[in-house]
Design goal:
The protein is globular. A hairpin with an 8-residue loop joins β24 (about 335) and β25. The chain is built from one helix and 46 strands. It has about 575 residues and is mainly β. A six-stranded antiparallel beta sheet has the order 14-15-16-17-20-21, with no helix packed on it. The chain has a six-stranded antiparallel beta sheet with strand order 23-24-25-26-29-30, with no helix packed on it. A five-stranded mixed beta sheet has the order 2-8-7-4-5, with no helix packed on it. Helices cover about 5% and strands about 40% of the residues.
């Protein structure tokens, strides 16, 4: 038998629901909607809890309760996060709520994982424009992973199935914005359709204050964009219909407007290389042709002052046909002369600031069929890492990569074993003396073992597994099915092309001590994350200004345990971990 209160309640509820439906039809009535504030929320594995925001829009006059659930996506409940099913109540006038989801850390290098979050049990008459969202848990043991919170389409229109964008990062401006040169091409016919210069904000969005420059006039052509130290930008165009002529088109101010004070002209048949120098001067390399500066021929290798007049204090070696230039410390320049065959090895020279050959550097000889030097980077200690396609360097087997001492002699401590089976197209310096090796040359093996480029080399030349497979692991937001490749580095960050825009790698993940415990005898036991086959040094400090080494260990798994024995130092000690 029903009580009077039960009968009254059951009779009233349908009436209330009907009244709510009638009210939504009244003029001026605003329906209530409850939804997640965004499609994707980001969480770092080591930082718990994650916070997700729910908002109420429309009529907020009464109280309202919905249910938030967090279930598995690629993340596992109870292993990667604590599952949630909790009511959320909005008080009258309340429009925003935040729900915490506990993240569970581990010691393993993994892919980023997702949690599906949903809003359910919405009251009658309440709608939701975003009832589902994703919580992305970013792994903290794997430096080099794709930063899923950052990508840029560079403001490009939708591309066709056979069209690809080839972005080339030029420079980071002082405010953190990036100037990018983009060529959009037809991959079926290998033609350039158009190119653009665009500036993007640090979050990857297009900066609307910088005028996007599109050029669709140069069929089968390309453009080079050269960023100068003062923030100005040189734009050089190349056009096949015009006989393969490179032309300096104009100079842009740092804000993207054309610099009308710049009236110099520079043209060249064949190749043309412009290399900005730290002092604002620029090297002009015409390869085997003499460029025309303001209509007059200049030496194939020349240096221009900041006013774009020839620098009379610089005279390059006239007998050399140089195919690549890389500025190094002390105002000197590494110069590469292409040998074109095994019988004529490629040569690597160092030029003094006045353009003369540096007699203190032993000329390098890269031999093989074919042979060429594609990249030279200088490390903080003055050593030079040289990449390209060659079998021997100065008569020693090196297979496409070698490190030289400052005097040009081979550094035997750089142990790359059998080297590469193809060309490491580009090298980039990373922190701690590590080296990022691009994949443009199509190598598939390093030191006799199969690898998936790009790869990272440790300071001793051995392979670092941190990055491998990152750019080929099918991360969801990457739409391109074509191979990805590192594109450029700006201020230590690695960007890569996706076939339609830019992505970014997370190279700044620090080594982290996960737990500490002091034993009764004063011994400290510490557990840290690690990457196998890398050595780590535990350091300690009493004042945070000076750290001393405690012990060094080689990691065999993703977990590493250290012991700091009792000492006479103060009981308060600070620890940090350094990768070697």
């Amino acid at each position: 038998m029903k009580t009077r209160s039960q009968t009254t309640r059951s009779n009233i509820q349908p009436g209330i629901a009907l009244a709510a439906l009638l009210m939504t039809a009244l003029p001026g009535f605003t329906a209530t909607s409850v939804q997640f504030s965004r499609d994707t929320f980001l969480a770092d594995e080591f930082l718990s809890p994650a916070r997700v925001a729910v908002e109420r829009t429309g009529d907020s006059g009464g109280s309202l309760t919905v249910t938030l659930t967090a279930t598995n996506g690629t993340a596992m409940p109870g292993e990667d996060f604590v599952p949630v099913s909790t009511p959320i109540t909005f008080a009258p006038g309340e429009t925003n709520k935040v729900v915490e989801i506990q993240i569970q850390d581990d010691y393993f290098a993994e892919r980023d994982k997702t949690v599906l979050i949903q809003l359910t049990n919405l009251p009658a008459g309440v709608t939701s424009t975003r009832p589902e969202a994703t919580l992305l848990i970013r792994d903290d043991e794997r430096p080099g992973s794709i930063d899923s919170s950052w990508h840029s389409t560079l403001g490009l229109p939708p591309l066709g199935p056979d069209q690809l964008a080839d972005p080339r990062i030029v420079t980071r401006q002082p405010d953190g914005k990036l100037i990018v040169n983009v060529t959009v091409g037809d991959s079926l016919f290998f033609e350039s359709l158009f190119w653009r210069i665009v500036r993007i904000n640090p979050d990857g969005s297009v900066d609307p204050s910088f005028p996007i420059i599109d050029d669709q006039t140069q069929s089968n052509g390309e453009h080079k964009v050269v960023a100068m130290p003062d923030g100005k930008i040189l734009v050089v165009g190349y056009n096949l219909p015009a006989g393969g002529r490179y032309t300096l088109k104009y100079r842009l101010n740092p804000d993207g407007t054309q610099d009308i004070t710049f009236t110099n002209t520079l043209t060249q048949f064949g190749g043309l290389e412009l290399v900005p120098l730290p002092d604002g001067k620029v090297l002009i390399n015409g390869y085997n042709w003499s460029p025309l500066l303001n209509g007059s021929p200049i030496p194939k290798l020349s240096r221009l002052n900041t006013d774009w007049n020839l620098d009379p204090t610089f005279t390059g070696p006239a007998s050399l046909l140089l195919s690549g230039l890389w500025p190094v410390s002390g105002g000197k320049v590494m110069a590469f002369a292409y040998g074109q065959s095994g019988a004529n090895p490629s040569k690597l020279y160092r030029l003094n600031p006045d353009g003369s050959l540096d007699s203190g550097f032993a000329v390098g000889s890269a031999a093989g069929t074919p042979n060429m030097i594609g990249s030279v980077i200088e490390q903080p200690d003055g050593k030079l890492v040289v990449g390209g396609v060659f079998q021997t360097f100065n008569g020693q087997v090196r297979n496409s990569i070698v490190r030289l001492n400052p005097d040009g002699s081979i550094d035997s401590s750089f142990q790359t074993g059998q080297g590469f089976d193809g060309q490491p197209y580009q090298l980039w310096p990373l922190s701690g003396g590590r080296i990022l090796v691009g994949e443009g040359g199509g190598y598939t093996r390093f030191d006799g073992e199969p690898v998936t480029p790009p790869i990272i080399l440790n300071p001793n030349g051995r392979r670092d597994p941190a990055l491998e497979g990152t750019l080929h692991d099918g991360v969801g937001w990457i739409a391109s099915a074509s191979p990805l490749y590192p594109n450029d580095m700006v201020a230590g960050e690695v960007y890569f092309a996706t076939g339609y825009g830019l992505g970014r790698l997370r190279m700044d993940l620090s080594l982290r001590i996960a737990s500490t415990r002091r034993e009764s005898d004063g011994t400290m036991r510490l557990v840290a994350n690690a990457l196998p086959d890398r050595s780590y040094t535990l350091q300690a400090s009493e004042n945070l200004s000076h750290y001393s080494d405690v012990t060094t260990q080689l990691a065999t798994t993703n977990r590493l345990e250290f012991t700091d024995p009792p000492t006479n130092s103060p009981t308060m000690r600070f620890y940090r971990l350094k990768g070697n």
